[in-house]
Design brief:
The structure is a homodimer of 199-residue chains. The first copy, chain A, has 199 residues and is mainly α. Chain A has helices at 9-31, 38-45, 49-55, 59-73, 84-100, 106-117, 119-146, 156-173, 180-193. The interface between A and B is large, with 40 and 41 residues.
Chain lengths: 199, 199
Amino acid sequence: MPSPSGPDPTRRSERSRRAILTAAVELLGETGYNELTIEAIAARAGVGKQTIYRWWSGKGAVILDALSDAALAVDASMPDTGDIRTDLYAIIRPTVAELADPRLSATSRALSIETLSDEALAEQVRDRLLRPQLDAVKDRLRAAQLADQVRADVDLDQAVELLFGPMYYRWMFRTGPLSQEYADDVVDLALAAFGIARA
Amino acid sequence: MPSPSGPDPTRRSERSRRAILTAAVELLGETGYNELTIEAIAARAGVGKQTIYRWWSGKGAVILDALSDAALAVDASMPDTGDIRTDLYAIIRPTVAELADPRLSATSRALSIETLSDEALAEQVRDRLLRPQLDAVKDRLRAAQLADQVRADVDLDQAVELLFGPMYYRWMFRTGPLSQEYADDVVDLALAAFGIARA
């Protein structure tokens, strides 16, 4: 027997929310961030524009939620083979490859623009998208520190930025190639800074 | 006796160009990049909007020219005291201090947004604003390499990005404080990567 008040509004909201986020990710892949509009997301999701604006301030906020949901679904933990160099290659190579791909990096580009333009969104990008990855790498470096593979006096917050900062800079300002060889060089240079000479 | 064809049009153009660039820099300091408009620049410079659009594609391009002129006026060469650590402190401390200041870094923010949004402008920002500074630091590191203060196998392009990348990352994603202590740590960590232990 249907409830006299109709379908549960919470479940209906959750269904709309998922439809909107799915539509946003699909359209992002099809058209890229610049061409993405709230109108197109609403049409694809089968909701009204005002439904989206009730929950989100704009397309940056919608994409942030969509990517956070996706990130939560992926295990953020790092591999731990016992060899820090092997494990850092495994995390930095795909990150560089993603930045080297204009299609895959379109989202990073979009979120970087929003981060630079919107203070509130910047904090969310940092806390919901970047932090989980940075913390996973930091945990792995802490284990390496305990195993005497990283100097004890290395600040681990600075250490993760030494890994991610140079490649973001190179990607953002296009100062050089983003090849796998470069990815490995980034790791080797950082490890030299952490006190580990190349074998 | 005035020339029958009136004032020299090249000189008149140069005077307008300078007035526009000066107005742009003044307004940037007063209102910030987001509020900056071509209309306001034109009004301040005493020219028509169409004069600006004849020479520039938008405010990003005007600001880039204004800053390139200013950069040319500053000597891009590095100090060379013979001690690479001292010299790197001298260049990295003010760079971090500028990024830490919301007013001073508004321009970097604006140019970063334009760089991420506009491919043609990205190349100009890199070649006209970043390259001169990166090359000066690279030359200083090359001298340190010849003086056996930096390992011979260090790639100097990667070396300069190891200095500038982490602080841009921290500034952009607000992952930590931009203090003078941090600036010195960046230099010390990079020098450790280049093969120089802290004295």
